Amino acid sequence: MAAWQLIRRVTAAVLSDLERGLRGLLAGNEQLVPLLAFPHYPHTFSRASKSDDFKVPSILDEAVLWMAAPKNRRTIEVNRTRRRADRKLLKPRRDIELCPNCSEPKLKHRLCGNCYSYVAFETKNIRQKIAWLEGGPLRTPAMETVVHYNDDAPVTNLGKRIVEQKRKRPHWFPAA
Asked: InterPro entries in the record, alphabetically (predicted)?
């Protein structure tokens, strides 16, 4: 008999005894059998267990152990500095100016809300008048439209549709 065969038999016997002892400790739990693997060792064991529903609770199954947790407590000074830091304060707006027409505050390069309400009102009136003249949707004539106010010069525009408004022209609405 060769030396390597003798070493293999002795190792197999030791592993068998170790496995048998561990199987007795675990009370038939087959999830952990075989505990040690050996390439030439036949893993034959009986599947008969004392209780099939017995499970060894695994500490790795509990997700609480895997969650992050603070290792050191933060002091109250650090917490207050973090909560009330300068970077969290409101920064002053530098893009607000007064409207040159109505002196209301507005954002730079934007139409002021007060002036926009005037423009929206006038546009709504002009559109209502055009809708009344056309008599319904999809009846728009293929010609240019001119809005005429009371204080405008007399109309001499030939070939253009004229929408007359019965009031004074707003100062912000230039004459054509």
From this structure: Mitoribosomal_protein_bL32, Ribosomal_bL32, Ribosomal_zn-bd
Residues contacting 99, CB < 8 A, separation 6+: 105, 106, 112, 114, 115
Rg (C-alpha) for the chain, rounded Å, is: 46
User: For residues 26 and 80, what is the distance between their CA atoms, to the nearest angstrom?
Assistant: 53
DSSP state of 109: T
Q: Is the peptide bond prior to 34 cis by the omega test (within 30 degrees of 0)?
A: yes
Q: How many CA atoms lie within 13 A of 118 on its CB side?
A: 11
Instruction: Give residues with Cβ within 8 angstroms of 16, minimum separation 6.
Output: 41
Q: What is the mean pLDDT of residues 95-116?
A: 94
pTM above 0.85, yes or no: no
